[in-house]
Amino acid sequence: CFAPFLCLRPPQIRVKPDRTGVVTDGVKHSMNPFCEIAVEEAVKLKEKKLVKEVVAVSCGPQQVQETIRTALAMGADRGIHVEVSGKDYETLGPLQVSKIFAALAKKEQADLIILGKQAIDDDCNQTGQMTAALLDWPQGTFASEVTLEADKLKVVREIDGGLETIKIKLPAVVTADLRLNTPRYATLPNIMKAKKKKIVNVKPADLGVDVSSRLEVLKVDEPPQRQSGVKVETVHDLVEKLKEAGRI
Amino acid sequence: MALRSVSRLLVNSQRCVLFTASRSQKTAAASPWEKSGEKKQVKTPKAQFNWRDALDLEGLLTEEEIMIRDSFRTYCQEKLMPRILMANRDEVFHREIVSEMGELGVLGPTIKGYGCAGTSYVAYGLIAREVERVDSGYRSVMSVQSSLVMHPINAYGTEEQKEKYLPRLARGEILGCFGLTEPNHGSDPGGMETRAKYNPSSRTFTLTGSKTWITNSPVADICVVWAKCEDGKVRGFLLERGMKGLSTPKIEGKFSLRASATGMIIMDEVEVPEENLLPKVSGLAGPFGCLNNARYGIAWGALGAAEFCFHAARQYTLDRIQFGVPLARNQLIQKKMADMLTEIAIGLQSCVQLGRLIDEKKAAPEMISMLKRNSCGKALDIARQARDMLGGNGIADEYHIIRHVMNLEAVNTYEGTHDIHALILGRAITGLQSFTVDK
Predict the structure, then answer these.
(1) What are phi and psi for residue A181, nearest 5 degrees?
(2) Is the minimum CB–CB distance between B72 and chain A shorter than 8 Å?
(3) What is the value of pTM for the model shown?
(4) Is B189 exposed, middle or buried (0-12, 13-18, 19+ CB in 10 A)?
(5) B119 vs A188: CB contact, 8 Å cut-off?
(6) Which of B422, B165, B192 minimizes the C-alpha distance to B286?
(7) What does R_g of chain B's alpha carbons equal in angstroms?
(8) Which residues of B are catalytic?
(9) Which residues of B touch A26 (CB under 8 A)?
(10) Which residues form the Acyl-CoA oxidase/dehydrogenase middle domain (chain B) (predicted)?
């Protein structure tokens, strides 16, 4: 499982004129980089014969299927496309997605959910944690190393102070951090095999999930324009200017 | 067909949003505004011009081809681009790239079975374009392995030969080279002096002669060598490194394709077992079949190099300020870029059509000649113009364009020079051959 596909940052992100969000039309969409790392980890576990099947999941409109295909080309066995489009998609956030994932995990009887630690468009860093809470499963977030030991998972987490190693029981949720692995390039033969793998369509309603949002985006603004600096002649002037600006 | 167009819509939905919207509006049921034949025209959204893909090549590709191209483009930009500056400057061939490409499954991609991907010719073209966007030398290595070594073994070899060599070639475990050109016979391979004499007692052939301008030969593990037999017919032989009498000296002092190793194949009475003969072809049809396969890839590839030069020149002239304005503000500069854009867009469209024809087995060799000649000639021109637009910086290899200029000289020449392909087309147009002075 992994987070929805989303905007890859193009050279110029622009805020929509009505300030309700950013312009996504004509912007190339692809898999969230942290989710790519999650897919790679899942495929590696399968190659080591530690897991039986890898299912790639994404929530969103039709285009999302492209991203699921990429996961299939990397080695996932089958895909599930949870169809959310239009207004619902615009307001789709971590809470609804985690509800969907929780419902799917129960339905598919998953033992492990791996997703990217955060999406690079909203930087929420919530979906993994919320999913674990809804399922009442343990979680290993910001994982930089994952080892399966019998029915437990040893997870090395990247934290502010350094690295934390924890052991959690399966079933569990893991979120992938940057150094967990280096995602493979999808090989030609695998891209062609991916064509034959199945992607199943489901709607949130089928899973008993209500995708309406409890959040309302009031406005989206660009960061303030960077002001030009001021050059001073001496250190004395520098100190004076800093005092003037109330900085010291 | 229906499925394919649907998948195209899915893939291109960002751009196709405009098209699907307009399509549904046109077929909408009678609206409340319609009165006595008077139709209210609903405004169709305007199609956007995209200078990066002026004639929507993307819309002609299958979802699979797009994925193949995108995955391989990422590899080329992340893994090949960082190496090329010094590889070209120091004339170093990174043998590892063959294994890397093998791992990705892009070697011999159109071959079915034997560890190969079995993909379309359009996908092969897209692959060539992405490699050559980085360097023509790298693409030459890929073309030789795929079209000039794997293809002849697949098309003309025995089952044993295919099982023995193809999987290892596909993985990049072994590297091959193609020996046709000789020091005294380039454009006229039919005049070759390399001879293969059959020895009934040992059931071997003895090969003597020399080949030159052979990509990969200094480090190749196997050589597909074309030699004239006693019956006057040209046949293909598989020679392996280590055979007595076989040597592959490197050609020094090259100022083109420096990132790829080029050399000679010298054969001094090399004994080749008869099992190493490629039995399913005789005559020049053999080598030409391979060359056509490679030329098709080159038609795409050269445009990849041209695209790099065009994009690089565009960025440079947008960034470089002279007389208070970017160079790109100037008419002479814009005219040059307009010419580049046009040739690249038109060239790519023709390549897609050719690829589809080849996949349908409806392509004639003259078509391939036409596009190889066009792509290479136009790409060389584009590279030279781009070099000029960069001014002094254009001669520094850090800006890469000069390397493409150097490389495209060879690309325009090998696999049939610009002029030779003109003669091939001239013969097809008039029915009169003009290769030789006699009738």
Answers:
(1) -165, 180
(2) yes
(3) 0.84
(4) middle
(5) yes
(6) B192
(7) 24
(8) 415
(9) 14-15, 48
(10) 177-270
The full 3-state SS of chain A, as one line of letters, equals: CCCCCEECCCCCCCECCCCCCECCCCCCEECCHHHHHHHHHHHHHHHCCCCCCCEEEEEECCCHHHHHHHHHHHCCCEEEEEECCCHHHHCCCHHHHHHHHHHHHHHHCCCEEEEECCCCCCCCCCHHHHHHHHHCCCEEEEEEEEEEECCEEEEEEEECCEEEEEEEECCEEEEECHHHCCCCCCCHHHHHHHCCCCEEEECHHHHCCCCCCCCCCCCCCCCCCCCCCCCCCCHHHHHHHHHHCCCC
> Is A194:A200 a contact under the CB 8 Å cutoff?
no
CB contact at 8 A, B372 and B298: yes
Q: Do A188 and B17 touch (CB under 8 A)?
A: no
Q: Which residue has the tokens 């990217």?
A: A116
Q: pLDDT in tens for each of the 248 residues of chain A?
A: 443 344 333 456 788 888 888 887 766 778 899 999 999 999 999 999 999 999 999 999 998 998 999 999 999 999 999 999 888 888 889 999 999 999 999 999 999 999 999 998 888 999 999 999 999 999 999 999 999 998 899 999 999 999 999 999 999 999 999 999 999 999 999 999 998 999 999 999 999 999 888 888 898 888 888 888 888 999 999 999 999 989 88
φ, ψ for residue B186 (rounded to 5)?
-105, -75
Which residues is B370 bridged to in the sheet?
Answer: none
Instruction: Evaluate whether B276 touches B157 at the Cβ level (below 8 Å).
Output: no
Tell me the nearest-neighbour CA distance from A134 into chain B, angstroms: 33
User: CB distance B10–A65 less than 8 Å?
Assistant: yes
Query: Of A62, A185, A192, which is closest to B104 when you measure between CB atoms?
Result: A185
Q: What would the DSSP string read from start to end of B60-104?
A: GS-HHHHHHHHHHHHHIIIIIHHHHHHHHHTT---THHHHHHHHH
- Are A65 and B118 in contact (CB < 8 Å)? no
Question: Across the interface, which of A28, A62, A188 has its CB nearest the CB of B106?
Answer: A188
| Integer Cα distance of B146 and B131 in angstroms | 13
Crossing angle of helices B121-134 and B63-75, rounded to 10°: 20
